[in-house]
């Protein structure tokens, strides 16, 4: 892939990873509030735990450059869920604009991956040597 594109994907991967990891940590640190929020939108408690896991681990994987495509797919699904279940009635501005941006970034990474400075590339190269 073009070097400029790879650098752009790296920036997107790390930014999405940091944001999602921070949201996962925030939700995990106040799990009772997270469960209450999920209950308020009619979702079961187990889905809150799954969301925390996907956001936290998926975000970390993106930062490290491991399992980029599956992590981006799962994070995209959580953003689609956030939009449909919670943010859509609020409208675009002040509602679903932020999760929509994260969904778009997730879709880009799911479609392309991101190999620049990725731990998975280091592991793959060391195995083939």
Automatic annotation (TrEMBL):
Transmembrane segments: 7-26, 46-65, 72-92
Any Pfam family the entry gives: DoxX
Subcellular location: Cell membrane
InterPro entries xref list: DoxX, DoxX-like_oxidoreductase
GO cellular component: plasma membrane
Membrane topology value: Multi-pass membrane protein
Keywords on record: Cell membrane, Membrane, Transmembrane, Transmembrane helix
Family: Belongs to the DoxX family.
Name of the protein described by the UniProt record: Uncharacterized membrane protein YphA, DoxX/SURF4 family
